[in-house]
Amino acid sequence: MELARPVTIFHTASPEFSDAPVSAYQSIIVDGTRHLLNAAAKVGTRALINTSTSSVIHDNLTDLVDASEDLPILRPPQQKRIYSLKKADAEEAIIGANRNGGSDDRALLTCSLRPCLAFGEHDIGALGKMVAVALQGRSRFQMGNGHNLYDFVYVGNLADAHLLAARTLLAAWGHPRPTDPNSLVDGECFNITNDDRWLFWDFQRAISALTGHPIRPEDIVVIPKWAGLTMGFMSEWFVWAISRGTRTPNMTREGIRFSTMIRTLNTDKAKRVLGYRPKVGMQEGLERSVRWFMEEGEKKRV
Questions:
Q1: How confident is the model at residue 298 (pLDDT cuts 50, 70, 90)?
Q2: How far is CA 191 from the centre of its chain?
Q3: Residue 235: strand, helix, or coil
Q4: Are residues 193 and 265 in contact, defined by beta-carbon separation less than 8 angstroms?
Q5: Domain 8-301 superfamily per CATH
Q6: Cα 38 to chain center, whole Å?
Q7: Which residues pair with 199 in a beta bridge?
Q8: 11 neighbors 33 (Cβ within 8 angstroms)
Q9: CA 149 to CA 192: how far, in whole Å?
Q10: From the CB of residue 32, how many other CB atoms can be counted at a distance below 10 Å?
Q11: Catalytic residues, which ones?
Q12: Domain boundaries, given as residue ranges, for the chain
Protein backbone atom coordinates (compact mmCIF):
# COMPACT_ATOMS: atom_id res chain seq x y z
CA MET A 1 0.00 0.00 0.00
CA GLU A 2 2.86 2.40 0.77
CA LEU A 3 4.40 1.60 -2.60
CA ALA A 4 1.21 1.79 -4.69
CA ARG A 5 -0.62 4.54 -2.74
CA PRO A 6 -3.89 3.74 -4.58
CA VAL A 7 -6.45 6.48 -5.15
CA THR A 8 -9.21 3.87 -5.51
CA ILE A 9 -9.57 0.40 -3.98
CA PHE A 10 -11.98 -2.32 -5.06
CA HIS A 11 -12.41 -4.65 -2.09
CA THR A 12 -13.77 -7.68 -3.91
CA ALA A 13 -15.72 -10.65 -2.63
CA SER A 14 -14.21 -13.24 -0.36
CA PRO A 15 -14.82 -16.86 -1.33
CA GLU A 16 -17.35 -18.89 0.60
CA PHE A 17 -15.33 -21.48 2.47
CA SER A 18 -16.94 -24.90 2.69
CA ASP A 19 -14.49 -26.64 4.97
CA ALA A 20 -12.60 -23.83 6.72
CA PRO A 21 -12.87 -23.22 10.47
CA VAL A 22 -15.05 -20.39 11.74
CA SER A 23 -11.89 -18.48 12.63
CA ALA A 24 -11.03 -18.21 8.91
CA TYR A 25 -14.19 -16.20 8.23
CA GLN A 26 -13.25 -13.74 10.97
CA SER A 27 -9.56 -13.41 10.10
CA ILE A 28 -9.97 -13.14 6.33
CA ILE A 29 -13.29 -11.33 5.87
CA VAL A 30 -13.45 -9.10 8.95
CA ASP A 31 -9.88 -8.63 10.19
CA GLY A 32 -8.60 -8.39 6.62
CA THR A 33 -11.09 -5.60 5.93
CA ARG A 34 -9.99 -3.68 9.01
CA HIS A 35 -6.32 -3.97 8.00
CA LEU A 36 -7.22 -2.65 4.55
CA LEU A 37 -9.16 0.31 5.97
CA ASN A 38 -6.28 1.24 8.27
CA ALA A 39 -3.78 1.08 5.42
CA ALA A 40 -6.06 3.06 3.09
CA ALA A 41 -6.39 5.84 5.66
CA LYS A 42 -2.61 6.04 6.09
CA VAL A 43 -1.80 6.39 2.39
CA GLY A 44 -4.60 8.81 1.55
CA THR A 45 -6.86 6.60 -0.56
CA ARG A 46 -9.92 8.55 -1.73
CA ALA A 47 -12.45 5.86 -2.67
CA LEU A 48 -13.11 2.31 -1.55
CA ILE A 49 -15.82 0.17 -3.15
CA ASN A 50 -16.78 -2.96 -1.25
CA THR A 51 -18.23 -6.12 -2.76
CA SER A 52 -20.73 -7.29 -0.18
CA THR A 53 -23.61 -9.76 -0.64
CA SER A 54 -27.38 -9.57 -0.70
CA SER A 55 -27.42 -12.32 1.92
CA VAL A 56 -26.67 -9.77 4.68
CA ILE A 57 -30.37 -8.77 4.58
CA HIS A 58 -31.68 -12.30 4.02
CA ASP A 59 -32.20 -15.12 6.50
CA ASN A 60 -31.38 -17.54 3.66
CA LEU A 61 -34.42 -19.63 4.61
CA THR A 62 -37.49 -17.70 3.47
CA ASP A 63 -38.33 -15.86 0.24
CA LEU A 64 -36.68 -12.49 -0.44
CA VAL A 65 -38.99 -10.47 -2.70
CA ASP A 66 -38.00 -7.19 -4.42
CA ALA A 67 -35.78 -6.34 -1.45
CA SER A 68 -34.45 -2.79 -1.15
CA GLU A 69 -31.32 -1.55 0.58
CA ASP A 70 -33.24 -0.10 3.53
CA LEU A 71 -33.98 -3.55 4.94
CA PRO A 72 -32.01 -4.14 8.15
CA ILE A 73 -28.88 -6.26 8.26
CA LEU A 74 -29.84 -9.50 9.98
CA ARG A 75 -28.16 -10.81 13.11
CA PRO A 76 -28.74 -13.96 15.17
CA PRO A 77 -31.12 -15.61 15.69
CA GLN A 78 -32.59 -14.63 12.29
CA GLN A 79 -29.21 -14.95 10.59
CA LYS A 80 -27.36 -18.23 11.11
CA ARG A 81 -24.95 -18.36 8.14
CA ILE A 82 -21.46 -17.49 9.33
CA TYR A 83 -20.50 -16.18 5.88
CA SER A 84 -23.39 -13.71 5.84
CA LEU A 85 -22.66 -12.58 9.40
CA LYS A 86 -19.00 -11.89 8.70
CA LYS A 87 -19.72 -10.15 5.41
CA ALA A 88 -22.15 -7.96 7.37
CA ASP A 89 -19.40 -7.16 9.88
CA ALA A 90 -17.05 -6.19 7.05
CA GLU A 91 -19.67 -4.06 5.33
CA GLU A 92 -20.50 -2.21 8.56
CA ALA A 93 -16.81 -1.49 9.14
CA ILE A 94 -16.44 -0.10 5.61
CA ILE A 95 -19.57 2.06 5.77
CA GLY A 96 -18.53 3.24 9.23
CA ALA A 97 -15.16 4.37 7.88
CA ASN A 98 -16.77 6.74 5.37
CA ARG A 99 -15.44 10.31 5.84
CA ASN A 100 -13.61 9.09 8.95
CA GLY A 101 -16.96 8.32 10.52
CA GLY A 102 -17.91 12.00 10.39
CA SER A 103 -18.01 14.84 7.87
CA ASP A 104 -14.38 15.06 6.75
CA ASP A 105 -14.72 16.06 3.08
CA ARG A 106 -11.17 15.05 2.18
CA ALA A 107 -11.16 11.68 3.95
CA LEU A 108 -11.79 8.21 2.50
CA LEU A 109 -15.20 7.80 0.83
CA THR A 110 -16.77 4.34 0.83
CA CYS A 111 -19.78 2.50 -0.50
CA SER A 112 -20.86 -1.13 -0.71
CA LEU A 113 -22.37 -3.12 -3.59
CA ARG A 114 -24.68 -6.03 -2.83
CA PRO A 115 -24.84 -8.27 -5.89
CA CYS A 116 -27.30 -11.10 -6.35
CA LEU A 117 -26.10 -14.47 -7.71
CA ALA A 118 -23.27 -13.52 -10.07
CA PHE A 119 -22.23 -15.70 -13.02
CA GLY A 120 -19.71 -15.49 -15.83
CA GLU A 121 -16.52 -16.81 -17.36
CA HIS A 122 -14.11 -18.43 -14.89
CA ASP A 123 -16.97 -18.95 -12.39
CA ILE A 124 -15.95 -22.43 -11.32
CA GLY A 125 -18.19 -22.16 -8.27
CA ALA A 126 -21.91 -21.71 -8.94
CA LEU A 127 -21.93 -21.72 -12.75
CA GLY A 128 -19.23 -24.36 -13.01
CA LYS A 129 -21.35 -26.76 -10.98
CA MET A 130 -24.40 -26.03 -13.14
CA VAL A 131 -22.42 -26.69 -16.32
CA ALA A 132 -21.16 -29.97 -14.86
CA VAL A 133 -24.73 -31.00 -14.02
CA ALA A 134 -25.81 -30.17 -17.58
CA LEU A 135 -22.96 -32.16 -19.16
CA GLN A 136 -23.91 -35.13 -16.99
CA GLY A 137 -27.46 -34.99 -18.34
CA ARG A 138 -28.97 -34.21 -14.94
CA SER A 139 -30.59 -30.83 -15.72
CA ARG A 140 -33.93 -32.50 -16.23
CA PHE A 141 -34.27 -32.92 -12.46
CA GLN A 142 -36.01 -29.99 -10.78
CA MET A 143 -36.39 -29.36 -7.06
CA GLY A 144 -39.73 -27.88 -6.05
CA ASN A 145 -42.47 -26.47 -8.25
CA GLY A 146 -40.06 -24.31 -10.28
CA HIS A 147 -42.06 -21.10 -9.76
CA ASN A 148 -39.34 -19.33 -7.79
CA LEU A 149 -38.03 -16.14 -9.42
CA TYR A 150 -34.36 -15.25 -9.04
CA ASP A 151 -32.17 -12.27 -9.78
CA PHE A 152 -28.82 -12.96 -11.43
CA VAL A 153 -26.06 -10.65 -12.63
CA TYR A 154 -23.49 -11.23 -15.36
CA VAL A 155 -20.03 -10.55 -13.97
CA GLY A 156 -19.21 -7.97 -16.64
CA ASN A 157 -22.18 -5.89 -15.57
CA LEU A 158 -21.11 -6.24 -11.95
CA ALA A 159 -17.66 -4.94 -12.90
CA ASP A 160 -19.31 -1.98 -14.64
CA ALA A 161 -21.25 -1.23 -11.45
CA HIS A 162 -17.97 -1.10 -9.51
CA LEU A 163 -16.50 1.37 -12.00
CA LEU A 164 -19.61 3.55 -11.85
CA ALA A 165 -19.45 3.57 -8.06
CA ALA A 166 -15.76 4.50 -8.16
CA ARG A 167 -16.30 7.40 -10.54
CA THR A 168 -19.23 8.69 -8.49
CA LEU A 169 -17.25 8.48 -5.25
CA LEU A 170 -14.26 10.28 -6.77
CA ALA A 171 -16.54 13.03 -8.07
CA ALA A 172 -17.91 13.43 -4.52
CA TRP A 173 -14.48 13.49 -2.82
CA GLY A 174 -13.54 16.87 -1.40
CA HIS A 175 -17.15 18.08 -1.34
CA PRO A 176 -19.65 18.18 1.55
CA ARG A 177 -22.01 15.24 1.75
CA PRO A 178 -25.28 16.11 -0.08
CA THR A 179 -28.34 16.77 2.03
CA ASP A 180 -30.64 15.18 -0.56
CA PRO A 181 -30.90 11.48 0.43
CA ASN A 182 -31.77 10.56 -3.17
CA SER A 183 -28.32 11.58 -4.42
CA LEU A 184 -26.11 10.07 -1.71
CA VAL A 185 -23.37 7.67 -2.82
CA ASP A 186 -20.73 7.66 -0.07
CA GLY A 187 -21.69 5.69 3.02
CA GLU A 188 -24.40 3.92 1.01
CA CYS A 189 -25.22 0.37 -0.15
CA PHE A 190 -26.49 -0.59 -3.60
CA ASN A 191 -28.21 -3.72 -4.92
CA ILE A 192 -26.82 -4.91 -8.27
CA THR A 193 -28.66 -7.32 -10.60
CA ASN A 194 -29.12 -7.87 -14.33
CA ASP A 195 -32.57 -6.28 -13.94
CA ASP A 196 -34.11 -9.31 -15.64
CA ARG A 197 -35.60 -11.91 -13.32
CA TRP A 198 -35.66 -15.54 -14.39
CA LEU A 199 -37.16 -18.64 -12.87
CA PHE A 200 -34.27 -20.43 -11.16
CA TRP A 201 -34.77 -23.71 -12.98
CA ASP A 202 -35.18 -21.99 -16.36
CA PHE A 203 -31.67 -20.62 -15.75
CA GLN A 204 -30.32 -24.13 -15.19
CA ARG A 205 -32.10 -25.48 -18.28
CA ALA A 206 -30.81 -22.56 -20.41
CA ILE A 207 -27.28 -23.58 -19.40
CA SER A 208 -28.05 -27.17 -20.34
CA ALA A 209 -29.32 -26.12 -23.78
CA LEU A 210 -26.14 -24.12 -24.41
CA THR A 211 -24.02 -27.19 -23.61
CA GLY A 212 -25.93 -29.14 -26.28
CA HIS A 213 -28.30 -30.88 -23.88
CA PRO A 214 -31.69 -29.17 -24.30
CA ILE A 215 -34.44 -30.27 -21.92
CA ARG A 216 -37.94 -30.82 -23.29
CA PRO A 217 -40.82 -29.88 -20.93
CA GLU A 218 -42.06 -33.46 -20.98
CA ASP A 219 -38.66 -34.70 -19.80
CA ILE A 220 -38.58 -32.58 -16.62
CA VAL A 221 -38.63 -34.67 -13.44
CA VAL A 222 -40.04 -32.69 -10.50
CA ILE A 223 -38.79 -33.67 -7.03
CA PRO A 224 -40.84 -32.21 -4.16
CA LYS A 225 -38.97 -29.81 -1.91
CA TRP A 226 -39.52 -32.01 1.16
CA ALA A 227 -37.98 -34.96 -0.67
CA GLY A 228 -35.00 -32.85 -1.74
CA LEU A 229 -34.40 -31.68 1.83
CA THR A 230 -34.51 -35.31 3.00
CA MET A 231 -32.00 -36.30 0.33
CA GLY A 232 -29.78 -33.39 1.31
CA PHE A 233 -29.89 -34.41 4.97
CA MET A 234 -28.93 -37.99 4.13
CA SER A 235 -26.14 -36.81 1.82
CA GLU A 236 -24.69 -34.53 4.51
CA TRP A 237 -24.60 -37.27 7.12
CA PHE A 238 -23.24 -39.91 4.74
CA VAL A 239 -20.36 -37.72 3.54
CA TRP A 240 -19.65 -36.58 7.10
CA ALA A 241 -19.51 -40.21 8.27
CA ILE A 242 -17.18 -41.51 5.56
CA SER A 243 -14.88 -38.45 5.60
CA ARG A 244 -15.03 -37.76 9.33
CA GLY A 245 -16.16 -34.24 8.61
CA THR A 246 -13.38 -33.33 6.18
CA ARG A 247 -15.49 -33.20 2.99
CA THR A 248 -18.56 -31.28 1.88
CA PRO A 249 -21.32 -33.13 -0.02
CA ASN A 250 -22.48 -32.01 -3.46
CA MET A 251 -26.09 -32.04 -2.27
CA THR A 252 -26.96 -30.12 0.91
CA ARG A 253 -30.14 -28.90 2.54
CA GLU A 254 -28.93 -25.33 2.11
CA GLY A 255 -28.47 -25.88 -1.61
CA ILE A 256 -31.99 -27.29 -1.89
CA ARG A 257 -33.42 -24.28 -0.04
CA PHE A 258 -31.57 -21.83 -2.28
CA SER A 259 -32.81 -23.54 -5.44
CA THR A 260 -36.46 -23.49 -4.32
CA MET A 261 -36.83 -20.00 -2.79
CA ILE A 262 -37.54 -16.61 -4.35
CA ARG A 263 -34.57 -14.19 -4.26
CA THR A 264 -35.19 -10.86 -5.98
CA LEU A 265 -33.69 -7.40 -5.38
CA ASN A 266 -34.82 -3.87 -6.18
CA THR A 267 -32.16 -1.92 -8.13
CA ASP A 268 -33.87 1.48 -8.39
CA LYS A 269 -31.27 3.10 -6.13
CA ALA A 270 -28.28 1.94 -8.23
CA LYS A 271 -30.00 3.17 -11.39
CA ARG A 272 -30.83 6.55 -9.88
CA VAL A 273 -27.58 7.33 -8.06
CA LEU A 274 -24.92 5.43 -10.05
CA GLY A 275 -26.60 5.49 -13.44
CA TYR A 276 -26.30 1.71 -13.54
CA ARG A 277 -27.77 -0.13 -16.51
CA PRO A 278 -26.72 -3.70 -17.38
CA LYS A 279 -25.03 -3.68 -20.80
CA VAL A 280 -25.00 -7.47 -21.30
CA GLY A 281 -28.35 -9.25 -21.25
CA MET A 282 -28.96 -12.56 -19.51
CA GLN A 283 -28.96 -14.70 -22.64
CA GLU A 284 -25.79 -13.12 -24.03
CA GLY A 285 -24.11 -13.41 -20.62
CA LEU A 286 -24.98 -17.11 -20.44
CA GLU A 287 -23.76 -17.71 -23.98
CA ARG A 288 -20.41 -16.06 -23.22
CA SER A 289 -20.05 -17.93 -19.95
CA VAL A 290 -20.97 -21.40 -21.16
CA ARG A 291 -18.82 -20.96 -24.27
CA TRP A 292 -15.84 -20.33 -22.01
CA PHE A 293 -16.49 -23.52 -20.05
CA MET A 294 -16.93 -25.57 -23.21
CA GLU A 295 -13.72 -24.20 -24.71
CA GLU A 296 -11.81 -24.89 -21.49
CA GLY A 297 -13.15 -28.45 -21.47
CA GLU A 298 -12.04 -28.92 -25.07
CA LYS A 299 -8.53 -27.69 -24.20
CA LYS A 300 -8.29 -30.27 -21.42
CA ARG A 301 -9.41 -33.06 -23.74
CA VAL A 302 -6.75 -32.05 -26.30
A1: confident
A2: 10
A3: helix
A4: yes
A5: NAD(P)-binding Rossmann-like Domain (3.40.50.720)
A6: 25
A7: 149
A8: yes
A9: 16
A10: 14
A11: 87
A12: 8-301
